[in-house]
Structure formats: C-alpha cells, structure tokens
Here is the input.
Amino acid sequence: MKKIILALALSVSSMSAFSQGFVQPRVSQWGNNVQIQIFNHTDYAVSCSGWINFSYWSGRQRSEYFNDYVQSRFNSYRTVYNHDWNDRVSRVNHSIYCY
Here is the structure.
C-alpha cells in the first residue's frame, strides 16, 4: 500500500512540474504593427529567440529576429511597427521558442 501511495504522489508532483514549465509566445497582428507577448508564469527565467515573418498587402515580405530574456514571474511585450500606413500587415507567422 505504501508503494502505491508513493508512486501516486510522485506521478502527481511530476505532472504539476511539467505543466508549469511551458512558456508559449503570443504574436498578435494589429493593422500596421505586430505585438509579441511572452508571459512567464514559471519559477525560472527563460530565454526566447526566433524569427518573425511578415507579409504585407502589397506583396512585400519582411523578417526580423527576436531575442529576449524574461525573468521568472514577469512578462515581456515588444511591438514591431510598419511605418507605411498604406501597406498594412496581411499575415504574420513566427518561429520563436523559449527555453
């Protein structure tokens, strides 16, 4: 019986540690700018890096490299602007990973 309780306690604690350790960046498109948000609710700092690819209504494309270090229990917000108001962002995708 003690072995079953011990195995159950270890599995629950390992699942809760796994669920807390994942940081996913959020990329939002707002007309002529793109906002990158990273919410770090873990107990350790994370480093996030990767590429953001933009497509515009005119067919023009652009890529920017993103790199940020987010402390534990903090958030990060970055905005990338397109200064041509007549050429709005039509699509954005990213390959930003946090580790």
